[in-house]
Design a protein that fits this description.
There is one protein chain. A hairpin with a 7-residue loop joins strand 1 and strand 2. The chain contains 13 helices and 23 strands. The chain is an alpha/beta fold. It folds into three domains: 75 residues, Roll (Archaeosine Trna-guanine Transglycosylase, Chain: A, domain 4); 123 residues, Rossmann fold (3-Layer(aba) Sandwich); 227 residues. One of its GO terms (molecular function) is hydrolase activity.
């Protein structure tokens, strides 16, 4: 049930959500608030005893720490998580992937030689090591001025890693860079090395999928006289090749799209994330590839996601990924519920269960078809679950390394940051969209009143961006990467 002031999401829920600031004593959803309820925050619709489970989205979001009366504000002062450690997940009946449906939606993209499709035609410079990061940026600046208008962009994506790393940590850096090099949006790639780093160019190029190696050039700075001149010559060659590409009509199924949220608030799970979920369902049904990540932000909601696995192998891979990530926390002596963030809490999210149940709505109800390790490419066709943490920059970089050519990023509090591929910022509330038009590409709050109209407008926005319309982050020059650093630094 929805009113202009508040929302009762599921019939089983014991709480409602304020859609605007509610004053103490104001009627809402048939009860009277006992305190002021900020927008996006919860209030009790019935009495709860101390120790009783509190339900939202039809699922438990934690346990009451004290008695809660109808109309009371329900938040961190009287609600705590019930999450704890690893779980022995039990598979249910497998979900069928369903029949792919023809979809009339099309966009204008680049069809690459390896059969994949791109939303941008760019040149990327990827340093093997932080020692040549500034050099990479200088090469990109000079080349952008020299080749203005010939390609969609020339960008250096720098990082501080690539040396003094050991074992799996170095392998993770190499895998992420190799995945980025293979991304279809990069028509050409310069791998810029120093020469003495742990992340040697020969090993890095061997990690790039063979079908993508033809667009990659390599340069070792210590092995040439003037590395800027040498890099410029290689970039010139890559630009000349890239200019042959032309946009052409592409089906919706040709999109591989990352699903991401950051700076969530109490409305994220009601507006922006369900909007993404409906799009993800349509994309998956058409044969496209939505990719969900941020594994710690599905803790508490993983049962619903894993129950949609198409077979036992996929279920077991997903369950192992979730438990592996929990063990990553536990081995550091940290609770698995070390979330939500201060910004999330200020926006009305109290427990990780609540945050996760809202966050997984980005994946809609599509069957889970693939489970993908960090640095690997997502196979085409159907919903994929990708290994990466919740950190915005790390997880968004992982999505690009997995082959996503757009990232759909929902937010309730806002962030200016963009990533290697077009990053579409979707506001959960109208106030953010109005205050930050230079950050936000779409206002999802319209979905509260007319979900179908919101879906149509959202699809039109995405198809335009896929066809070359620039996102707010692209217009502001907000492009960065972050690599997941997990091991010892020498």
């Amino acid at each position: 049930m929805i009113t202009l002031s508040s929302l009762h999401i599921h019939a089983a829920d014991g709480v409602g959500v304020a859609l605007r600031d509610l004053a103490a004593g104001e009627p809402a959803l048939g009860i009277t608030t006992g305190a002021a309820i900020p927008r996006g925050h919860k209030f009790a619709l019935r009495a709860h005893r101390a120790g009783e489970v509190v339900t939202k989205y039809g699922q438990p979001i934690g346990v009451a720490t004290s008695a809660i009366a109808p109309g009371d504000h329900v938040h961190s002062h009287n609600l705590v998580t019930a999450l704890d450690g690893e779980i022995a997940y039990m598979p249910g009946a497998s979900t069928t992937a369903g029949t792919r449906a023809s979809d009339p939606a099309t966009w204008q993209g680049y069809h690459r030689a390896d059969g994949r499709f791109a939303t941008r035609n760019e040149i990327w410079i990827l340093p093997t090591v932080g020692c040549v990061a500034v050099t990479a940026e200088q090469v990109a600046r000079d080349a952008s001025a020299r080749h203005a208008g010939r390609v969609d962009g020339i960008h250096a994506f720098t990082h501080p890693h690539g040396c003094s790393q050991l074992g799996d940590d170095l392998c993770g850096t190499r895998a992420a860079l190799a995945g980025l090099a293979a991304n279809p949006n990069a028509a050409g790639v310069l791998l810029l090395g120093l020469g003495c780093e742990s992340n040697q160019l020969d090993a890095l190029i061997a990690s790039v999928p063979e079908a993508a190696r033809g667009k990659v050039r390599m340069l070792t700075s210590q092995a040439v006289g003037n590395e800027l001149d040498a890099a410029a010559a290689l970039i010139d060659e890559l630009v000349d090749q890239a200019t042959a590409a032309r946009r052409e009509p592409c089906p919706l199924s040709a999109l591989t799209v990352g699903l991401k949220c950051g700076g969530s608030d109490g409305l994220s799970g009601l507006t922006a994330n369900p909007l993404l979920g409906r799009f993800a369902d349509r994309l998956a049904a058409a044969g496209g590839t939505p990719v969900l990540t941020e594994i710690p932000e599905i803790f508490g909601a993983e049962h619903a996601l894993l129950s949609r696995a198409i077979d036992r192998q996929t279920f077991e891979a997903g369950a192992a990924l979730v438990n592996r990530f929990k063990r990553y926390f536990l081995d550091q002596g940290l609770p698995v519920s070390e979330n939500p963030s201060p910004g999330n809490i200020a926006g009305g999210i109290t427990t990780l269960e609540e945050k996760s149940l809202g966050a997984v709505q980005k994946a809609g109800q599509a069957p889970l078809v693939h489970v993908v390790d960090y640095g690997e490419a997502a196979p085409p066709g159907g919903l994929a679950l990708l290994e990466a943490p919740g950190n915005d920059a790390v997880s968004s970089t992982a999505l690009a390394a997995a082959g996503c050519t757009m990232v759909l990023f929902t937010t309730g509090r806002g962030t200016p940051l963009g990533f290697p591929v077009p990053t579409v910022k979707i506001a959960s509330n109208a106030a953010l969209a109005a205050a930050k038009p230079h950050w936000i590409d779409f206002d999802a709050s319209i979905a509260l009143e007319d979900p179908e109209a919101a879906d149509r407008q959202f699809l039109a926005t995405l198809l335009a961006i896929a066809s070359g319309a620039r996102t707010a982050a692209e217009k502001q020059g907000q492009r960065t990467i972050a690599i997941w650093k997990r091991g010892v630094t020498l």
